[in-house]
Amino acid sequence: MAMTEQRVSYTLDSSLETIDRAEEKATHIATELGFPEEEVMQISMAVREGAVNAVLHGNAYAPDKKVTLAFEQTGSDLVITIRDQGKGMDLSKIPNPLAPENLMKTSGRGIFLMRSFMDVVEIRPSQTGTELKLIKHVRGPAGGKEASQ
Amino acid sequence: MSMKVSSRQVDGVTIVDCSGRITLGEGSVILRDTVRDLLSKGNKKIVLNLAEVNYIDSSGIGELVSAFTTTKNQGGELKLLNLTKKVNDLLQITKLYTVFDVKDDEAAAVKSFK
Questions:
Q1: Is the Cβ pair B23, A48 closer than 8 Å?
Q2: Domains and their CATH numbers in chain A
Q3: Has this prediction a pTM greater than 0.80?
Q4: B23: distance to nearest CA of chain A, Å?
C-alpha cells in the first residue's frame, strides 16, 4: 500500500477476495470523508462493480496480473481509479441493460450501476489494460466550500 | 456476512428464507443451487424471502433473473417477498421490479399461486 495525505493506492491480486476488499476500502474511505450512508452504499457498490470488471473481465483471474485501486480526494471530488492488465473492452459492444431485449439477461448491469451511482464514470484503455475512473462529488462536511452552501 | 438460506413449506409453496449478501461468488452459487435443487425435487412454487438480504450486486441481480427464468421454463413460478429498501431500489433502477412478482406479505404471496 502506498499512501500520501490525500491519496491511497493498493495493488491487489486478481481474486474474489480483491473484490470484497475493494468494496470494504471504498466503504471505509467514503465514510471517513463524511458521505451520507446512502452515498457510501452507492460508492462501495460502484467500486465493487468496477473491481468485478477488473478481476473477471479484465484480468480473467490470471494470477500474474494485478488490479490497482486508488482513492484520491481532489478539491470537492472523491476520485477512484481502478486499473487492470487485461485486453481492454469495447464500450460500443456493451448492450443497454434496460432495453426490453436485454432486461432478462443475467449479466451486463455492472457499468450501468456504476453510472447510476457515480457523478462521473470514465473507461479508457491504459498502457497495460483498462483504466476505470469513478468520481463522486463531495457534498457533505468533507466537501469544503460546498458544505456551507 | 455470507449468504444463508433455509427452506420451509407453506400450503404447497416453498418459502426460501435468505439472509446476508447475494453477490458474485458464494452468495450467487448458494441461491442458484437452492433453486435448482427445489426444482429437481418438483417444488415449482417458490417464494424467495429477501427480508434479511442486506446487499446484492449485479451478479446477485443476475442470479435472481436466472432463478426466475429457470423456474418459469420448468413450468413453475418464483416470487419475491419482503424486499429491503436497497434491493427494492436496485430492482427499480434496473427496471426489473415490474418483471418480478414482488410481495410484501407472506400469506398473500402463498395465496397468489395458482
A1: yes
A2: 2-148 (3.30.565.10)
A3: yes
A4: 10
